[in-house]
């Protein structure tokens, strides 16, 4: 049959129990054969344990302080790196090769089917009342450039660059209240530079506030 140990397992609970034990031993000890020497040695052990527990607590506090200081320094370092990288990517002399060499973009063939030169954005077009929402996948890139054709247009029109999905096309139909066909395509950006191939074209038919 299992009998629970009378000594607690936690440090604080053990010290509390032992202090109570010592108080009782001072009264009961002599009659039960506990010598003053044994009791004094136990009290010395308790004092030694208390001293070491205090040292442990101080060490924990010091360690936590160092961790917090390290984390603050790490945050500042990361902020500066991101600011520097954004500046590099916007420079006219910046190239994809520079980004790969600096380790701020993956190598051309890293995790991208067909390599960087063949990367194509995936996106969906959804008509929402008075706008068309384009949801695109960012992957390892910074953004996309978006082009469109609508109605009878035969040439692509540069709409905008987008660095956070989704993109919202709020243009009204060229002819009011007449359903309009639109095509969209995207190409990835690293910084301000276009990379990879144009996406598949996505076609929708819309009117001002409805889909036909």
- Please count the beta strands (DSSP E, at least 2 residues each): 8
Q: Mean pLDDT, as a whole number?
A: 86
Number of domain units:
2
List the uncertain runs: none
CATH architecture of the largest domain: Sandwich
Text of the CATH class of the largest domain: Mainly Beta
Tell me about the largest β-sheet.
5 strands, antiparallel
Gyration radius, rounded: 35 Å
Number of helices: 3
CATH homologous superfamily of the largest domain - what is it?
Answer: Immunoglobulins
Query: In which range does the helix fraction lie?
Result: 25-40%
The portion of residues forming beta strands comes to: 15-25%
Shape: elongated
Could you give the order of the helices and strands?
HHHEEEEEEEE
Q: In terms of structural class, how would the helical and strand content be classed?
A: alpha+beta
- CATH fold annotation of the largest domain: Immunoglobulin-like
Please specify the SSE layout and strand pairing.
Blueprint: H1 11-28, H2 36-90, H3 96-102, E1 123-128, E2 131-136, E3 143-150, E4 157-162, E5 167-169, E6 180-190, E7 193-195, E8 202-206
Antiparallel strand pairs: 1-2, 2-5, 3-4, 3-6, 6-7, 6-8
């Amino acid at each position: 049959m299992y009998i629970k140990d009378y000594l607690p397992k936690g440090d604080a609970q053990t010290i509390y129990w032992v202090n109570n034990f010592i108080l009782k031993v001072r009264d009961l000890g002599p009659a039960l054969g506990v010598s003053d020497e044994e009791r004094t040695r136990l009290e010395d052990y308790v004092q030694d344990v208390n001293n070491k527990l205090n040292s442990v607590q101080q060490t924990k506090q010091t360690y936590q302080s160092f961790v917090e200081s390290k984390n603050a320094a790490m945050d500042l370092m990361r902020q500066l790196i991101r600011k520097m990288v954004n500046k590099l990517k916007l420079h006219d002399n910046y190239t994809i090769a520079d980004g790969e060499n600096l380790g701020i973009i993956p190598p051309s063939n890293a995790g991208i089917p067909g390599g960087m030169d063949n990367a194509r954005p995936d996106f969906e077009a959804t008509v929402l009342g008075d706008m068309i929402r384009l949801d695109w996948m960012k992957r390892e890139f910074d953004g996309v450039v978006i082009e469109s054709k609508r109605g009878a247009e035969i040439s692509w029109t540069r709409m905008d660059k987008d660095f956070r999905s989704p993109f919202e096309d709020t243009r009204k139909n060229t002819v009011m209240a007449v359903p309009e066909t639109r095509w969209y395509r995207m190409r990835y950006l690293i910084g301000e530079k276009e990379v990879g191939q144009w996406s598949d074209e996505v076609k929708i038919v819309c009117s001002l506030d409805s889909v036909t």
